Amino acid sequence: MAFVVALLAGVVVASLVAAGSGQSPIPLPEVAGSVLHRLGLDLGPLPTAPRGDATLWTVRFPRVAMALVVGAALGAAGALMQGVFGNPLAEPSVVGVSAGAAVAAAASITFAWTFAGEWTIALCAFAGGLVTTLAVYALSRADGRTEVVTLVLTGIAVNAVAGAGLAFLLFVADTQAREQIVFWQLGSLNGTRWPYVGVVAPFAVVGCLAALACARRLDLLALGERPARHLGVDVERLRIGLVVVVALLTAAAVSFCGIVAFVGLVVPHVVRMVTGPAHRVVLPASMLAGALVLVVADTVARTFVAGADLPIGMLTSLVGGPFFFWLLRRTRRSAGGWG
Predict the structure, then answer these.
(1) DSSP assignment of 14-49
(2) 271 CB neighbour count, 10 Å cutoff
(3) How far apart are CA 82 and CA 239, in angstroms?
(4) pLDDT surpasses 90 at 319
(5) Integer Cα distance of 74 and 37 in angstroms
(6) Which among 171, 177, 100, 174 has a CA at the least distance from the CA of 137?
(7) How confident is the model at residue 331 (pLDDT cuts 50, 70, 90)?
(8) Cβ-contact 151, 136 below 8 angstroms
(9) Who has the most CB within 10 Å: 100, 133, 230, 335?
(10) Distance CA 113, CA 91 (A)
(11) Is the pLDDT of residue 22 over 90?
């Protein structure tokens, strides 16, 4: 529990620091004072920079809020995937949600679809992620059951097909569309506004609450399928429900921000190493840790190079890639256990 409290404190501090960072820095006390003022408490100084308060609430806080929501969603999705598969190397992309979202978003960019206005790309990405995940699940079912190995292999096959589809769209797209597709794949929180947060947040909240509600059954599933069934867990229904929750969380996360790699893999595994296997702690800690990682990564993305906004997916891959190699070696030494 102390670890969860420390993560929560870290999220609050990192969010305030992130809001004050940028081309026009705002001191931390002034950021906190602006927040308290919005809450009706005049307990701190307000931003003194020209249009400082407006910059905080129209540009920076929406971006910070989106980072918190997306990070928490990806952390929760990763923890669920690792719990369902019983493997620390599982992540949401296993079931094809990221690949499906990328293909749908690329199609909307390539063919200039505008049926939903400025929301078209996000809507297509969300729908593509959900549809692909449901297709993976439907194709992996046999005799009314879904084996984990079959689900993984089906996901690999669907990811390969989606990769080919994405390559075809890049081939037929014009130069401007091609650049937009590549940038979307790299992930970015640039241009986030409150309406975007308002769309993603409800899906993330519902998904996170559903994940927390399944914590006890995930702990029982970790004992093995047969013991879990003897203890009253409907394993098949649990897997169906959690795969849908993972698709919901991940599709919502990538719809506006693009693909943010490795958060769903690295964060839950590190949390599990610190807290142990109990999902009643792993799940909320993964949500907070995911939010913290993404807020910090986004702050680095927009401040590391003056006048440039680096793709956040590039930064998470830069850190997550070496960790993944280390994780592979560690898992091999421990014969696939949680270690």
Answers:
(1) HHHHHHH-SSS---HHHHHHHHHHHTT---SPPP-S
(2) 27
(3) 12
(4) no
(5) 31
(6) 100
(7) low
(8) yes
(9) 100
(10) 30
(11) no
Q: What is the pLDDT of residues 111-164, one digit of tens each?
A: 999 998 888 999 999 999 989 988 888 888 777 777 777 888 888 899 999 999
Domain count, the chain: 1
In a domain, 1, yes or no: no
pLDDT at site 127? 92
Q: Which long-range contacts (CB under 8 A, 24 or more apart) does 274-278 make?
A: 274/3, 275/3, 277/219, 277/222, 277/338, 278/215, 278/219
For residue 338, pLDDT beyond 60:
no
> Which pLDDT value is given to residue 336?
46
Whether 90 is covered by a domain: the verdict is yes
Residue type present at position 265: L
Where does residue 180 rank: exposed (0-12), middle (13-18), buried (19+ CB within 10 A)? middle
Chain-centroid distance of CA 181 in Å reads 19
CATH of the domain at 264: 1.10.3470.10
Distance CA 188, CA 169 (A): 21
Does 293 fall in a domain?
yes
Looking at the domain assignment, is residue 18 inside a domain?
Answer: no
Burial class (CB in 10 A: 0-12, 13-18, 19+), 256: buried
Which residues form the domain of 103?
63-333
Encoding tokens for residue 181? Answer: 């597709």
221 and 235 Cβ atoms separated by less than 8 Å: yes
List phi, psi (to 5°) of 305.
Answer: -115, 120
Distances in whole angstroms, Cα of residue 267 to Cα of each of 29, 146, 246: 30, 27, 15
How far is Cα 242 from Cα 173, in angstroms, rounded to an integer?
Answer: 36
pLDDT score of 262: 85
Residue 332 confidence (pLDDT): 64
